[in-house]
Amino acid sequence: MSRGAAGRAESSAGSGLIGVSATGPRDAWAVGYRDAAESDPGKAVLLRRDGLRWREAPLPREVPDGEGPARQEILDVPQGELTGIWQISPSDVWAVGFLHCYGDNCERPVGMHWDGSA
In angstroms, rounded to a whole number, what is the distance separating the alpha carbons of residues 35 and 39? Predict the structure, then answer.
């Protein structure tokens, strides 16, 4: 993603932003995907704008896996898409989307919460 002359976000082929949420001109978040191809669904992406520029924000290293307290470690950026974002305050942000299952041809929903700390 690059910043255009007018300050708008421009996507490259195989990448896209799906949702944006902001509490003001100096704090905004965006979600989407990158590196998608016909045979590859792409990777989930989370961006944060600090008033000057967009930066990629880290995604959780673990996500819930099925029922109960079991967790699945993400070894790299997860394949899938983040499709929605809601910023309630600068320290309360929710993102939703789906991740592709490892070893199976399936998708599973995912929700992520950021509480102001990494």
Answer: 11
- Residue 78: closest CA among 52, 26, 43: 43
- Return all residues near 21 (Cβ < 8 A) that are at least 6 apart: 28, 29, 30, 85, 86, 87, 93
Our CA angle for 11, 45, 115, nearest 5°, is 135
pLDDT in tens, 72-108: 554 455 678 899 999 999 889 999 998 776 666 677 7
Q: Are 80 and 99 in contact (CB under 8 A)?
A: yes
Claim: this prediction has a pTM higher than 0.85: no
Pairwise CA distance, residues 103 & 53, whole Å: 37
